[in-house]
Amino acid sequence: MGSGVQEQRASLTQGEVLPLASSSQSEGLKQTRSVINSLFSGALAGAVAKTAVAPLDRTKIIFQGKLEAYRLIYRTYLKEGFFSLWRGNSATMVRVIPYAAIQFCAHEQYKAVLGGYYGFQGNVLPPVPRLLAGSMAGTTAAMMTYPLDMVRARMAVTPKEMYSNILHVFVRISREEGMKTLYRGFTPTILGVAPYAGLSFFTYETLKKLHAEHSGRQQPYSYERLAFGACAGLIGQSASYPLDVVRRRMQTAGVTGHTYRTILGTMREIVSEEGVIRGLYKGLSMNWVKGPIAVGISFTTFDLTQILLKKGLSRCL
């Protein structure tokens, strides 16, 4: 009896040690780390990019919403100072950080799902799934953060005295205009963000793929990433710009005296009052300055943060 116990102990001591975690648990842990890394990298990318172009972003919103934008900007500068152009940036950060985190994380997840479905796991997706992954990522992020975008637009085009902070905007809109106002402009947002995000991610991923094929380097330099991102932003925002104008008009209708209710109705009114070019493409020249800078910074920050996090994680392990 005693010898049997000793033999059993010896076999346990000398035998193979069972793994502490199963392969499925290990895979789940790896997936969780990947999601957290993507969320953090995306949040940082969005915050850095939007802070860098905040004055131009506010000016663009005003330019879309007012007929004599340059006079309003000048009066704002004289009355409230240069840094007043950053007004609404706190609301922007509240929206952009979750939006960018969700968008970049969703894009990574959609790429993995579509890659597995089409047999391109770990490789660059074919063109159509590449475009689809970006569109779905942008749509997912927009659906989850839309009310914050509405609040940011309101704060950017109203006098400082009208809304004291982000919460005040929510309370006043809900009380005076109804909760559904927080989703005014939602449809053109989704219709606009799908081609915008799809083309942006598609262009950036395509340029990186072409770069790797022609240079032999899998990782572009930082300035190359910025250039690829700038091209992506230019193409994506130019394609979806009229819907962006419609979205802003519908969001700010409550404080501009207009009653925009439908996408087509808003477009007709803009075109009849201001014309096609001066109406639906108002502020596009500024968007060509702001957009490429913001998207280039965003994509570059995301990629470099992901690389740093993966290197740090590998060293820890």
Automatic annotation (TrEMBL):
SUPFAM superfamilies: Mitochondrial carrier (SSF103506)
One of the GO biological process terms: transmembrane transport
Solcar repeat residue intervals: 33-113, 125-210, 220-308
Keyword Repeat attached: yes
PANTHER family: SOLUTE CARRIER FAMILY 25
Role, per record: Mitochondrial carrier mediating the transport of coenzyme A (CoA) in mitochondria in exchange for intramitochondrial (deoxy)adenine nucleotides and adenosine 3',5'-diphosphate.
Protein name: Mitochondrial coenzyme A transporter SLC25A42
Organism name: Oreochromis niloticus (Nile tilapia)
Lineage, uppermost ranks: Eukaryota, Metazoa, Chordata, Craniata, Vertebrata
